[in-house]
Every structure is written in C-alpha cells, then in structure tokens.
Amino acid sequence: MTTDLNKKTNLARPLRDWLLLVALVLIWGSAFMFNRIALHSIPHGSVVAGRIMIATLVLLAVLLIQGKRLPAWGRVWWIYTWIAVIGNVLPFYCIAWGQLVVDSALAGILIAIMPLATIILMRLFIRHEPVSRWSAIGFIVGFLGIVVLMGPATLLGLGGDGLRLWAQLAILCGAICFALQSVLTRRLVQGDFVVAATATQCVASVLMLPVVLWVEQPWQLHATTDSALALIWLGIVPTALATVWYFMLIRSAGPAFMALVNYLTPCIALLCGVGLMGETPQAGTYPGLLLILSGIALSQWRR
What we know:
Number of domains: 1
Shape: globular
Order of helices and strands: HHHHHHHHHHHHH
Structural class: mainly alpha
Number of helices: 13
Helix content: over 70%
C-alpha cells in the first residue's frame, strides 16, 4: 500500500490541478485590487459580510439550478460550521481589521507563512499526506521570495506599539486559519463540491450578518457605484466560484499543493497594482518572483 501511495505521489500533476491553481491565483490575486476599491466607501466588516452573503445567494441559485439540495441536519453541519469559522469568518475579519493598521507589504509577508504552517499541520493531522524534503525546501525558498518581493525593510516594522502588534497578530491568525482550513477540508469534507461550498457559505452568512448589523449598521452606508460593483464581484467570483474550485483542488491535489496559491497571489496583486493601478515596482520585484517560481519548482520536485 505504501509503495502504491509513493508511486501515485511521484506522478506528474494532472493538467486540471494546474489549471485550477492558476485560476485561483488569478482570482485571489486580483481580489486585493477589488477589495481596495470596495473599502473606499464600505467599512471592512460590511465588505466581509457582503461578499459572503452574495456568494451564498449565488451558490444557492446554482444548487437550485442543478437540482441539488443542502444536506439534512446532522454531524456534517458541524463540519461545515468549523470550515466556515476557520476558513471564512475569522480570517476574513482578522485580515481586514489588521490591514487598517498594517501596510500591504508587511501584511503580504505575514500571510505568506500559510504554506509553512500547512506543512506543520499536515504532519499533525494527515499522516498519509507526504511532505518531502524538497517540499520543505521549496516552501522556504518561496517564502524568502515573498520577503524579497515585498521588501526586506518591511520586516523592521514587526512589533511596535500595542495596536500595531495586535494588528500583525490578527493577520498571522488569518494566515494560520487558512492553513488549518486546507487541512480540515482535505480530511473532513466529502461529497459534492457545490453542496459543501454552499453549506459553508450559508453558515458563514448566518454568523457574520448579526455582527455587522449590530456594529456597522450597513443600511446607513452610502456606497459609491465603484465600491458596490467591486463588492458584487468579490462575492460572485473570489468567494462563490473560487470556493467551489478550492474544494475541488484540495480534494484532488492536497493542502500542500493548494498552499502554492499563497506564493503566487502576491505576484498577481503586484501585476495588477503596476499594470492597472499605476504603482511603481520595487527593486526586489523580479528577484523575488524568480525565488517564488524556484520555490514552486522545488516543492513539486519528484524523483
């Protein structure tokens, strides 16, 4: 059995896995730009709740069109609740709140610990999921690429006063939540991808809506057209569609392969900033991209 598993592990990745990975990278990488537009006139909590609720409505419509239904109440809903809290509500809110204080460069470095956290959690929770020496080396090289890409000088901003420290810890919490979500999804989520994604978003909506209604009173907001359109896009594509593809990729390729998204999304975010937002690339942009791509190649190395 072990021999069969090793043979399966050493096979080249299917083209579908790479296509899903690229699609998620493009979607989540560009989401930073749309998130920034949405935040121009909408508070961060309402952005988080809004994208989750829009995603829920879209996925419920897809479920209805496909003639499927949500599962009956039982143990599986506790699984969906854990996934919703750990993978949606908590990280979305923590990261959004943290970025009110922490600049995007430092936030990118803090988020990039997710693949390394995934390796550790895989060793704890998924015994049969192999983590080779090349995978570990590749993830470390990729993380160094993130540091170079974002600028090593931003590391000097670690620590600081109380509020800044708490903001950094909140972003780290979000990154670790994403890593834990990948592992739990691989181990616990079974069945239809659309059903699992819809149920997860339903739970996240139920949890987020009362909090936002109480704290931010969104009915009093005056969102601009650009912010409203950006929020709708965030709900339909990066949250609804990407959640389904996320479940598919986790089931097919595993958490370690999925974690590569977190190395590549900063690259797309950078390209969107330079090409569409008129930002100037930093000195370490291209060496950082080279390290990131090298790390991916090393992590996928097979004898």
